[in-house]
Amino acid sequence: MNIKMQPDTQTLDEVVVIGYGTVKKRDLTGAVASVKSEDIVRMPTSNVLEAIQGQVAGLDITRSSGEAGSGVNMTLRGTRSINGDNSPLFIIDGMEGSYDELNPNDIASIEVLKDASSTAVYGAAGANGVIIITTKTPKKDKFSIDLDAYYGWNVISSFPEVNRGEDYINFRREAQRTVGAWNSPADDGNLFPSYMQKYIDNNQWVDWFDLASQTGITNSYNLSTSYSNDRVTSYFSLGYYNLEGLLKGDELERYSARAKIDFKANEMVKYGLNLYAMYSENDKRYSRIWNRILCMPPLGTPYDEDGNLVDYPLGDGNMNPLADMGEDQYVNNVKTLSVAPQIYVELTPLKGLSFKSLLGGYFRNMKESKYTGTKSYQGLESGLVQATIPNTFTYNYKWQNILTYNFKIKEDHDFTITGVTEWSKDQKEKATATANKFDTDSYLYHNLGAATGTPTVSSSYVGSQKMSYVARINYSYKGRYLLTLSSRWDGSSILADGNKWDMFPAGAIAWRISDEPFMQNVKAVSNLKLRASYGVTGNAGASEYATLDYSRTGIIGFQDVGVPYSGYSQSIANKSLGWEKSYMTDLGFDLGLFSDRLNVAFDWYRTDTKDILFEKNLPYATGGYGSSPFKIWSNVGETRNTGVELSITSRNFVGPEFQWSTTLAFSTNKEEVIKTTSEGPLQFGDYYLIPGEAIKTYYGYKYAGIWGTAEAEEAAKYSQKPGQVHIAENGTPDYKLNANDYYVLGSATPKWSGSLLNNFNYKNFDLSILLIARWDWTIPYGLTGWYRTDGLTPSPTVCDYWTPENQSARYPRPDASITNGQDPYQQWANYFDGSYLKVKTISLGYTFPKKWLNAVKIDRMRVYFTANNPFIFTKCDYLKNYDPEKGGNDDDAPLSKQYVFGVNISF
């Protein structure tokens, strides 16, 4: 028997969508990763990016909140910009769009463009990478109806044990023992104020966290039809999605529709329409309600005998953290309507020559209606009863023209020349009406005129325009030697005169070694291609009016007299503001072995970003005065990202009844600040820019444990005592802690991340398991260490605090003598290694045999069960009951686990 292995030419001939065109996978010169429809719908979610989390090497996607409708955080190949948005550009069916409103069931494929040769054709917009989303089109000469539905429930992914009962009492006892006021339970009489003691005596412990949270329900229904013949192709879809959040009253409801129609008038003319519409309602909760719940002593009477919320559950000044859940007390309803129309005409006057003109837009109206009532948390705290209605209109217009000419010379020389012009305009208008002091809560926000306070009205407008020209040449010699050259000219209204226009060139070469004659006898290698690219991209992500002076007016009160004034706003114009530029190098290879049973893609890259756009504070010495420092947008420094990406796909077993495939994605990225214009560390938000360190660096005092009783003499040199936080000095000890003793505490960016996907098929059963990991990164997590040291407001969760009997603890000793809050250095004990491994998705499905379905005219039917985020394993023991993906934010809702039953039916 003579067996000969053949390469999988179908895989190599797959068409991949790139900027302003398509190309066969075998002819790619850039670093592009693809995700297919079946890999997107594996995870039931309304968020497209969450569905592909972990499936693309170098694309880092996380969630920081479990609230209904919350989005994701993402970067591609690291953080380049500081104040600017580091998210990739999203292209939906050829034009820039918004991913967060897309129905995942409408998507046919997603291409992630990583290197400069792939992204430079998008110029400034593609500086952080490009994600191209292509929606579904029907198969030729086929009419089909598809129904996808699922129902599931959400529970909190992981959360520490709430502190109450004996743990709570012992915490307060220890605080009093520290000052000699407690020695045994006989001293409990003065342990708590009388208003708290009575609840303890009656065992009236309250789990506020449990009272506020719920098991959320999620359900989704999607119906689509498609049809195609020689003249017309059409795709229509309707979608409904509903999600109840983990916090009672937190809910998202979304309706979506898409119509995609293409007409072929004759062999030379095609035209079509692509229309998407979405309407959603999102009932939100106060953003810091989780913080309020966790900071409330776990005692009291939340509800009275009639089931109404008690304003002050402890009978003191502590307000009920559930106050906003009372009827008509806190309402924040956000209604959003989005419409994205697109029309095109395509002419093919000659063989290989085509001209396509697209006109598209994006229109969004978001109305937020908010009311805080008399017995809401804000109403009880400040007496402020307020209704406010912000209304935001967003408009985007785009006109794109693409000229493409494909031709060959003597069969061996294949050219594709592309020219593009693109114009876009963005506008955003916002009007807000606010009224205070209502005699009744029944109006909510529906009757602002009923307010007895003086109403206020405000409005704003921002707008920008961009014009671009693109030229690109793709060349192939015998399909083995590949070359791509491109250049884009971008003009932006945001930047200063003289700097508005710039050119962004790129080039790439590739060599398909596997097609060389000398490789024909190397049977094990079915595909081998070397790639190299270099290019420049830009970023104009500053404020729309960063280069313009504009004034403000107001009234200054002096001795009961109002004196009008005018002057500059607190944002000062920069008349020389220019482009932030990224210089990108990529070296890689694609390898297929054993008839493409094993495929490997490897890339090494380096991105140098210069003239970084940063909004910095001006010193008061410049003459600017206000409630906060004056600011100015500037080009301030240089950063570098260097990394490696590896993707391995293996068809481990291919049999008539059993198949098993594995995909491994791995990436490592080193961020580095090369230089800044500041003399020392430059702070932005929670991070610092420090030359030689990562961009998102934490910087401060270094936690060195808790002073022990054997170290009392050494601690006293720092005016400290056993049980307090030990801070490590930087350099020669002088026993004085100041900013000179700061250390780099870590970075918010992981050193490496990866995923492992296994797909199994046995007869009609299918099983997929996805693991993801983020490793070697730092989070500031204070949930188990936030407490007033006097013990009146203990840690909201059970924590490991120091006592003479427990001197290896992480957190300082409770101390009733400290009445102004925490140990002065307690916050520095809250920085942890956030490394984790997560079982992201487990999905088990069964496809019914066709012979069972023929009688009911069903073409295909699959039922499935999916578990999302069922298990998580953390490197740090202090995070074992927490999901580090959230990033240490105590104010937002915890992340969730989800369990879903679903069905896919095709007619």
TrEMBL record:
Subcellular location(s): the record lists: Cell outer membrane
Q: How does it sit in the membrane?
A: Multi-pass membrane protein
Q: Which domain of life is it from?
A: Bacteria
Q: Where is the TonB-dependent receptor plug domain?
A: 24-130
One Gene Ontology cellular component: cell outer membrane
Q: Which UniProt keywords apply?
A: Cell outer membrane, Membrane, Transmembrane, Transmembrane beta strand, Transport
| First-listed, main subcellular location of the protein, grouped into a coarse class | membrane
Name the protein family.
Belongs to the TonB-dependent receptor family.
Put simply, this protein is called: Outer membrane protein
Organism for this UniProt entry: Phocaeicola vulgatus
In the record, what lineage is assigned to the organism producing the protein? Bacteria, Pseudomonadati, Bacteroidota, Bacteroidia, Bacteroidales
